[in-house]
Each structure stands twice: as structure tokens, then as C-alpha cells.
Amino acid sequence: MSSSARRLATPVIILCATALFAPPSLAGPLGHLFSGKPKAEVARTDTGAQAIADAVRQALDERRYVDAADLLEKARVAKITSPRLVCLDGELLLAHGQFSDALTMFRGAATDPAEKAHALEGEGLALSMLGKSDQAMDDLKQATAADKSQWRAWNGLGREYDIRHEWKLSQAAYTQALAVAGTDSNHAVVLNNRGYSHLLQNQTTLATADFVAALDKDPALVAARTNLRISMAIDDDRAAVLNNVGLAAVIRGDYREAEKLLNEAIDAKGKYYARASDNLQLAKELEAHAAENPSATPDATP
Questions:
Q1: Gyration radius of the chain over CA positions
Q2: Does pLDDT of 231 surpass 90?
Q3: Which is nearest to 150 in space by CA: 82, 229, 92, 87?
Q4: What distances in angstroms separate CA 259 from CA 32, 137, 276, 279, 284, one per listed residue?
Q5: How much is the average pLDDT of 171-199?
Q6: How far apart are the first and last CA of the chain?
Q7: Cα separations in angstroms, 65 against 15, 19, 84, 198, 295
Q8: pTM for the full model?
């Protein structure tokens, strides 16, 4: 198996945190919101909070995380706040892999009726990345029930169903996500994850088609490009597929899933499989470490 075939990229769950940061561009139509207006007056300006939230939403969608962070910080300094801004702050934390902090943010906004679906979506995604699968599933289902346009929640449900090998349900979730994803970059994320799901099922032809479609939507999506190389290199080597996917599960912190897949890889090989055995040992060691350090999170992109 080639070296590239050992680097299976994990699914993209929220945002592509490895995207290049664009330089901040905070001057312009929002500048007056952060000027000399007394703080007490600014805090009561709902239209100000809405305008800033719209700008943060656009920055996050365009992966301009530096801009989003600067806008949120300026809002905090000016004491401009709203449940929507809290949720957007949670999204930024998710993009940077700070899942526990993101969870706190989303839970703080969940009591607001207007942001409940958004907050539940964020909670579910954070819990999923923290390995709390059952709680994640419950929140994501509630989010999609409250607002069927929550594409990230549908995408997260697809991942959770994949973990459970409930393939029909995962495909249905990805189909729903694609129906409401909106932008090309969002579609690319879902297509990559659906392709990854096909790869989990050793359906390399379908996987390759999805990775190609993802790159057509967003040529900069590194995960899809890496997965495409892997899918094309597999050539129906089931043991290698299971080892690669098992290693990917290790990287994203799904240690139980990783152990299951790596054991299947060893069984599929029919003889001693050194690489899968080494990866299995790594998964067990990392799982033990995570149990001793529950606040630790895997160093991987969501």
C-alpha cells in the first residue's frame, strides 16, 4: 500500500479549520458600531448586534476566521451581545477544535427560542467531536426537528449514523443536508462526508464520485482531495481499507470505532497484519489516555 493510502482524511464536520486566514477587514459599514457611542447605549442596540452577527456569519461561511474572531472580540469590548452572537462564537470555537468551550457557548444560548435550533445543532456537533455519541444524536435530531434547514445538523447526523453502521439512515441524512446546504462550499463538505461514508462501506466507486463532486464544488477542500487519492488507490483491498478507516477514526478520537475497524482489518487479512496491529495498540493507548484526561480532545480538524 502506498504512503498516500495511509493518510485517509477524516470527515469534515463543521468548517475547514485549515483554510488560509484572510487578513482582517473591519473598516467600513460596521465601524460606527465600535466607535464612541456609550457602552450602555450600544448594549441595548439590537440592530447593532444583528448587523455584527450578519458580518460574523458571512466571515465564518467564507472561512475568514480571523475576521470573525476580531468582530466578536470588538462586540465583547463594546458590550454588544445576543444569543445569535453567542452561537456564532461557538461555531468559531468548533472550527478551531475547542469543542468543550464551544459546548459551553451553545448551552448558554439554548434557552433563547429564536436560537434554539442553532444552539442544539452546535451542542450536537460539539458532543459528537467529544465522543459523546448518544447525547450528540439526541441534540442533532432535536435540531433538525426544530429547523429542517440546519444542514450542519443533518451532516452531523450522517456521521453519527456512519459510526453506528446504519448506512441507509446516514445516506438519508446526507441527502437532507445536500438539499439545504446552500453554498457550493457547504455542498462540498457534505459530499466529502458522504464519500467517506461510502469508503467505510468499501464502495470505492461511489466514494470516488462523491470526492470528485466535492472538489468540483470547492477545489480547495483538502480532505476531499486526500480522500480521492486514497479511494483511487485502494483497489478493493478490504484489509487496507479497514486499516485506513480505522486509523482515521483514531485521529478523530473515535477510539471504540477504531478498535472495531482495526480488528476487522486484522481478520480480513487472514494473517498477522503488523500495521493494523500497531494502529490497534495506538487506539487502545489513546483511549486509556482520554479516559484519564476527559478534558483532552483529539488534535484533528472537524
A1: 20
A2: no
A3: 87
A4: 55, 21, 10, 9, 7
A5: 95
A6: 26
A7: 10, 9, 17, 31, 24
A8: 0.65
